[in-house]
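Need residues for this backbone.
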């Protein structure tokens, strides 16, 4: 289905195509995969950027007969854990003679997390622009030599950046799990005192963060696979077809 809006004439008297609403490119791999990329980008930044969680452990003081008091720390995107302090959920602090608020979680993973989320948002915006181009200006897209080539270059760059950003974020996520998991107890000096006993309690499930990593690699596959369909729209592909057909032709015999 298509709807032609206008045409205009340039100063050289050539006919230039204007806006032509046409949803048929969405049925082709070029447009359909772009929709999948758009959806996958939404899941990527939403599952990572919207995360909030907390980790906690139980403290008992043998000398003060204090048992099972909870110490916790709340953390969220962009995961600057070194700025997140512990605090006692009970009214008293210090607890067991320890000022828990003077302890902070370990690690700053904001660079990897923000790189991943920012890139996913940029990809989301680019997919919208590309879909507008495919639906409204596909005639201009296929008549131009530069626009498909630019689209192809951006597709290759995006594939590489999805690999880099997702790998960095996956490594950061592993470190976040270590910093907020059971190993948290070993990072607190006061928990090694003979009168203070610390037992790990719980940490918020990071299933959504695992999903963000999965969608990051899914995006890489989608963009890598779509590179071929974008390449077919470029002049490089038409030139290769011309050279292939030209090489296969046989010159007619010359008459005597």
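Answer:
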């Amino acid at each position: 289905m298509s709807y032609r809006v206008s045409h205009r004439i340039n100063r050289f008297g050539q006919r230039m195509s204007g806006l032509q609403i046409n949803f048929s490119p969405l049925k082709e791999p070029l447009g359909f995969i772009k929709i999948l990329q758009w959806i996958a980008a939404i899941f990527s930044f939403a599952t990572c950027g919207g995360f909030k969680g907390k980790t906690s452990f139980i403290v008992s003081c043998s000398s003060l007969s204090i048992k099972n008091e909870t110490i916790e720390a709340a953390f969220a995107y962009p995961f600057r854990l070194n700025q997140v302090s512990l605090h006692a959920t009970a009214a008293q602090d210090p607890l067991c003679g320890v000022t828990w608020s003077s302890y902070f979680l370990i690690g700053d993973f904001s660079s990897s997390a923000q790189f991943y989320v920012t890139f996913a948002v940029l990809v989301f915006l680019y997919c919208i622009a590309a879909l507008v181009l495919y639906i409204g200006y596909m005639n201009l897209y296929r008549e131009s030599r530069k626009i498909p080539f630019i689209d192809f270059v951006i597709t290759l760059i995006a594939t590489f950046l999805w690999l880099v950003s997702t790998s960095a974020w996956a490594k950061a996520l592993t470190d976040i799990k270590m910093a907020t998991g059971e190993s948290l107890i070993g990072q607190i000096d006061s928990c090694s005192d003979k009168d203070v006993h610390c037992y790990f309690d719980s940490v918020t499930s990071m299933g959504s963060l695992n999903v963000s990593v999965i969608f990051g690699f899914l995006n890489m596959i989608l963009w890598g696979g779509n590179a071929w369909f974008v390449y077919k729209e470029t002049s490089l592909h038409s030139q290769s077809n011309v050279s292939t057909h030209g090489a296969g032709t046989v010159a007619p015999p010359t008459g005597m």
